[in-house]
Structure formats: structure tokens, C-alpha cells
Write a structure and sequence with these properties.
Chain lengths: 208, 461
């Protein structure tokens, strides 16, 4: 599965990058993360609870940050496995300063999944992953706001969303995405079309 | 503007200018025409109806792919040869003469069944995890022999047409037999020597039929009468209260297992070429091969449409795939235009008059080749999928399917095995479908009770 996208952070690049490299913030961006321990400055180990639709379970995994050119870019290498299956991925993250003082984050990566997780359906996972990334960015936005405000001497409460809130967010996104799934749309086309044609056929046969 | 040279070709969502749409669409119609018309004539279905309804089916299937996936699956849906044997057992047609409308209605119930099976299998694939599930239940060791049965089981029908006799005691009529033989030889030569000669190389059957028709006219075998130019096709609707209904639903419905692998193979093929063109043009790939389940659902919807309005069960056409690959025109809108043209042609009465006047000897000559090729394709399928023909379990599956299917279809009247089952199968069990189901069951035994030893294939030294 290929993931690609971008996000604009309302803050200078150094701040954004600093936040990105803060394991606590990173952990809060992906709720369900139960622990994230630093092995060394570029290696982390942790566990994460994942609950998406019918699949749930604990994941344990490793995160490696490679090819780091602070504060411009880095490569994330993720490996996790647990009861629901396994996931492996490589992601490239690129930060660039924009003229208006904001920071553009571009990411691209390839994730491979297996086990129950994969059998749920590659394309369903696709929309879940996108939704997770979206929610993560929203959390990071809030964290950044709190960070900048703290620097300016103000207190802004930052509370990471709980696992349940996060799951609810994903579920809501999924429901919106439900009618976007090709199979669902196909069923919504085939069945009414077959019924409609059968009715036309029936009426025509009575006319003969 | 980029200065990169434009790679010519149309991707599925591209729409050429109107003039090209009509011309390219007509080319599609010409490509599907010979096989679709021949199917209709052989099964006893009225040609105009089949043209019109298959055109409609193609349009509805294409719109379905665009609406659900946002991109066209570029396939043309014509009549499938896979159903001929199962259908003629019921319609018992004389070549070129439309069968009794009531019998057509009975058979249509079977087309609805095959359509519903396709839709269900399409859904099931989504749930059960893609092509792997099909490969377990319908491996090439089952589908290959079934294809053989469908083709070779029609051998007697082909020879009857070619020799101008209809029963086992008659003797051949020489003029008919000569016409059939010449048609056969000409068509074979055209198909071999016109390969890679552009568009004309795609029409050996049409050209062979025209040549055979002219020869038959010289022998005085062509009798043609023109009716009105414009005629509304005859639409027949399915009935479900005939004693043979259940026989048909089983006998015809099961033929879905022959078209499912075929349809999937066509999807893979066209997907490969579409992505290749997209890559060359620097555009996003279409990745159509991912949609096996959806493709089968569309195939099923097309069968349902044919079943409702009195045409023959369809399949997406390899002929049109080849045309698209050669011309690099995969445009969905062009295929929609082709569908519209086919619908209109169905209303041209004179076209039907000409087609119906084709002597059975010409069709017989073509059939020897075409039916045989279906059989050969079954063997090709087993070779391509490397079915181990030294393994007794694979041999057993093929052996049962071939003997029950071919033997039953040729050896017993109407292709019914002589085991009438009360109200359900009053004429007996349809041989080809029974053979296919037996093959599937035997395969399933080996799926559930895996043998401990598997004989290795013998490698050629």
C-alpha cells in the first residue's frame, strides 16, 4: 500500500521538527500507543493498541529514524507485529519552510501488512490508514499550538485524544468512506438495476 | 506544454472526438459480430434481439464500472460459446431458424441463474480473499477439462451441420460437405496467414463466413428473402413454470464456472495493456486487475440483462480485447458507442435477413474450427497453469469431467444423462454440467483430505 500526502503546520520548521522528534508528542499523535521507549536517539521500541472495525489487538514494534538531515528530512522505518497481523513500512518525511512562516510536511511511503489485518481488505485498510494519518495531524496541530504558546509564556491546555476518541474519529471517517468503496457502490448499482430491468421486462411481457 | 512526444492511444476514461468514436465503435461491432451472430444462430436465438440486447448489456456494464470505480473496465460483452451445448439441449434448433419462443423463455431462466451465480461469486471473492479462493475451488485442472467438454462436446453438432445431415442414419450431402470443407480450409488459412496484418487480421471468421457464403451461393444453397428494412426485434421474457426449468437452471447456470475464469483472464490481460499505455503516457495506472470481483458482478449483470430480454448469456470478448491491444484504443466511451451501434443494428431487418440466409454448411465448416478451438483452449489453459498431468488426482478430475461431459453430450439424446430425477430433471441430468460438478466435487475431496504423496511432474530431458 502506498501512502502519500502533505500537511501544512502553522509554525516555523525548527519547532515543527523538534516536536516531531519528541517521543511523547509522537506517541500522543497515535493514541493507543501504550509505551514508546527510546533505545537510542534514533531507535524506539513500543507497544500500541489498535482497534479498527472488527480487528483489534496489541502490536509491539520498532521505529527507526534513518537518513536524518535535521530539520529538513528523515526516513522512518517501522516494523510491528501482534495478534492482528504484522505491518512493515518505510516512510520518507520532508519538511520545507514556506514564505508565510508555515511548514509544509510531505510524506510518502510504502506499507506492507499481513495476517488478519490484511484479510480485512487491503482497500479498507487504505482508508483507515489515511484516516489515522489525518487524525494524527490534527493532534500534532494542537500540540504545536500548545508548544508555541508555551514558548510565548501562555498556558494552553493540550490533551491528547484518548484511544476511544481516536477510534470514534476513525470510525466516523470510515462511515463517510463507506459509500466510496467500489464494491459497495457496485452492489448499489447491480441490484437496483437488475430489479428495474426485471420490472421493465415484466411489464413488456404483459404488453405482448 | 510538455514537449515530450505524445504516445498515441486512448485510455479507458479518454473520449476521442465524435467522428472517431463512431468509426472506432463500428470497428468494435465488426469484431464481436461474427462470434455473437454465430452463437445466436447455433442456439436458435433471433439475431436482431441478440445484437440489441448484448449492446444494451455492454452499455449497462460499462456505466456500472464507471459509477462504482470511477473508471471504465474496457470490455465488450458478446454472446458466449460456453453455453451452446447446454442451451441446444433444450432449444434443439435447426440452424438459422429461431427456436420456439417458449423454449427460449425457458432457457432464459438459466441465463438469469448464471448471472446471479456470477454476481454471488464476485461478492464471495471480495469476502474470501481474492483470486486465491477461486484457484482453490476452480483450479485449472477443473476449468481446463470443462472448456474441453464445452468445445469437443459440440463436435457432433458441428459435423452434422457440415455434412448436411441431422440424424445418425443419414448420409452426407456432397454439395453441403464441399461447401463446409472449403469454408473450413479458407477460414483456417485466413486466421493463420492474416496474423499481425492489422485490423483485417482480426476478422478471419467474418471473412471466412463471407467466402463460404459466396461459395454456397454458387452451389445454389443460399435462399434469401428480404422483409421490411426496419424491424423491431422480438423480445422474449423468462418463464419459470416449465417442467424443464430446474434442469435449465442447473444445466445452464453451472456454465458460469466456464465463463468465470475466462472473464478473469480477460480482465488481467486488458489491465496489463492499459497500465502499459498509461505508463508510456506518463499517467496514473488504472490497476484494473484488482477488480476481479467487480468484473464478475458486471459479467453477471450482463447475463441477467440478456436473460430478461431474450438474448443469449454473454461474456466479455477476447476478440475485442485483441482489437484494443492492436489499436491501443481502450476508450470506454468508444465501447459505449459500439453498444449503441449494436442496438441500432438489431433494428435493421435486412441485416437479419442476410445473416439468417447463411447456409448451415457454412456454419458447420466454421464450427469444426471454432468448437475445436474451445477444446484446445482448455488444454492450453492446463498447460499455461502447469497442471501436473502425471499426478493421479489431476488425471482423475479431468478424466471424469471429459467422459461424463463429452461422452454424455454426444452419446445421449439432447446431451442428457439417462437418469431422470422426478420433477427436477424430467429429461435426465444435463451431461456437461453434471461432469463439471463432479469434477469440482472430486477436487474438493483432495482439498479437504490432502494426499500425503504427490507424484512429481516428469521433466523433459
Amino acid at each position: 500500500m502506498n501512502l502519500e500526502g502533505e500537511h501544512v503546520f502553522k509554525g516555523p520548521r525548527d519547532e515543527v521538527y523538534g516536536m516531531f522528534r519528541d517521543p511523547e508528542v509522537l506517541a500522543s499523535a497515535l493514541p493507543g500507543t501504550q509505551s514508546l521507549n527510546m533505545v537510542d536517539s534514533n531507535h524506539y521500541e513500543g507497544t500500541m493498541n489498535v482497534r479498527i472495525g472488527p480487528v483489534s489487538g496489541a502490536f509491539s514494534g520498532k521505529l527507526e529514524i534513518a537518513d536524518e538531515v535535521a530539520p529538513e528530512k528523515c526516513t522512518l522505518i517501522v516494523e510491528g507485529k501482534g495478534a492482528p497481523g504484522f505491518a512493515k513500512g518505510v516512510g520518507h518525511v520532508h519538511f520545507s519552510e514556506q514564505e508565510d512562516g508555515t511548514t509544509l510536511l510531505k510524506y510518502s511511503g510504502d506499507v506492507q501488512i499481513g495476517g488478519t489485518l490484511a484479510s480485512v481488505g487491503q482497500r479498507m485498510i487504505d482508508s483507515v490508514a489515511k484516516s489515522m494519518i489525518k487524525t494524527a495531524f490534527e493532534t500534532l496541530d494542537k500540540a504545536l499550538e500548545a508548544r508555541l504558546a508555551a514558548k510565548a509564556g501562555q498556558e494552553v491546555e493540550f490533551k491528547a485524544p484518548t484511544e476511544a476518541q481516536f477510534a470514534a474519529g476513525v470510525a466516523k471517517d470510515m462511515a463517510k468512506g463507506w459509500t466510496q468503496i467500489a464494491e459497495v457502490r457496485m452492489v448499489l448499482y447491480v441490484i437496483p438495476m437488475a430489479i428495474l430491468l426485471a420490472i421493465i421486462g415484466f411489464i413488456l411481457s404483459k404488453c405482448n | 506544454m510538455a514537449t515530450k512526444a505524445k504516445v498515441f492511444g486512448y485510455l479507458p476514461n479518454d473520449q476521442p472526438p465524435f467522428g472517431q468514436m463512431v468509426l472506432l465503435g463500428f470497428q468494435h461491432v465488426l469484431t464481436m459480430f461474427p462470434a455473437t451472430v454465430l452463437c445466436a444462430l447455433l442456439m436458435g436465438f433471433p439475431v436482431p434481439t441478440v445484437l440489441t440486447v448484448t449492446g444494451l448489456g455492454t452499455i449497462i456494464a460499462l456505466i456500472g464500472s464507471k459509477l462504482s470505480m470511477g473508471k471504465f473496465i474496457p470490455l465488450y460483452y458478446g454472446s458466449s460459446f460456453s453455453y451452446i451445448a447446454a442451451v441446444t439441449a433444450i432449444t434443439k434448433p435447426t440452424f438459422g431458424v429461431p427456436a420456439d419462443p417458449h423454449l427460449l423463455s425457458v432457457v432464459q431462466a438459466g441465463f438469469l441463474a448464471t448471472g446471479i451465480i456470477n454476481v454471488l461469486v464476485g461478492l464471495l471473492i471480495r469476502v474470501a480473499g481474492g483470486k486465491k479462493a477461486i484457484d482453490v475451488i476452480l483450479p485449472a485442472s477443473v476449468t481446463g477439462p470443462v472448456a474441453c467438454t464445452i468445445g469437443i462436446g459440440l463436435g457432433a453438432a458441428a459435423l452434422n451441420n457440415a455434412t448436411g445431415i441431422t440424424g445418425p442414419t443419414g448420409t452426407a450431402n456432397w454439395p453441403e460437405f464441399i461447401v463446409a470443407l472449403l469454408t473450413l480450409v479458407i477460414t483456417i488459412c485466413l486466421s493463420v496467414y492474416l496474423q499481425n496484418k492489422g485490423f483485417i487480421g482480426m476478422l478471419p471468421i467474418l471473412l471466412g463466413a463471407i467466402a463460404g457464403y459466396i461459395i454456397a451461393a454458387l452451389f445454389g444453397l443460399v435462399h434469401i428473402t428480404f422483409g421490411t428494412f426496419f424491424r423491431v426485434p422480438q423480445f422474449t421474457f423468462p418463464v419459470f413454470n416449465d417442467p424443464l426449468t430446474l434442469t435449465v437452471i442447473f444445466g445452464v447456470g453451472v456454465m458460469a464456472i466456464a465463463t468465470i475464469p475466462e472473464s478473469t483472464a480477460h480482465l488481467y490481460q486488458i489491465s496489463l495493456y492499459v497500465d502499459h499505455l498509461a505508463e508510456e503516457q506518463g499517467k496514473e495506472k488504472y490497476g484494473l486487475s484488482e477488480y476481479i470481483g467487480l468484473n464478475l458482478m458486471l459479467d453477471g449483470l450482463d447475463d441477467i440483462i440478456n436473460g430478461i430480454f431474450g438474448s443469449t448469456a454473454g461474456t466479455n470478448y477476447g476478440e475485442n480485447n485483441s482489437l484494443m491491444v492492436i489499436t491501443r484504443n481502450y476508450s470506454g466511451p468508444v465501447l459505449l458507442t459500439a453498444g449503441v451501434i449494436a442496438i441500432i443494428l438489431g433494428f435493421v431487418g435486412w441485416l437479419a435477413d442476410v445473416v439468417n440466409s447463411m447456409p448451415s454448411a457454412v456454419a458447420g465448416g466454421l464450427s469444426i474450427y471454432l468448437f475445436g478451438v474451445i477444446g484446445m483452449q482448455g488444454i492450453a489453459l492446463m498447460m499455461a497453469e502447469k497442471v501436473n498431468l502425471y499426478d493421479p488426482k489431476q488425471l482423475a478430475i479431468g478424466a471424469v469431467i471429459l467422459i461424463v461431459g463429452i461422452g454424455g453430450n454426444i452419446g445421449f439424446p439432447g446431451g442428457f444423462l439417462p437418469f431422470p430425477v422426478g420433477q427436477v430433471f424430467p429429461s435426465g441430468l444435463p451431461a456437461i454440467a453434471t461432469g463439471a460438478v463432479l469434477g469440482i466435487l472430486i477436487n474438493l475431496i483432495f482439498v479437504f483430505f490432502k494426499p500425503s504423496h504427490e507424484r512429481a511432474a516428469v521433466e523433459k530431458k
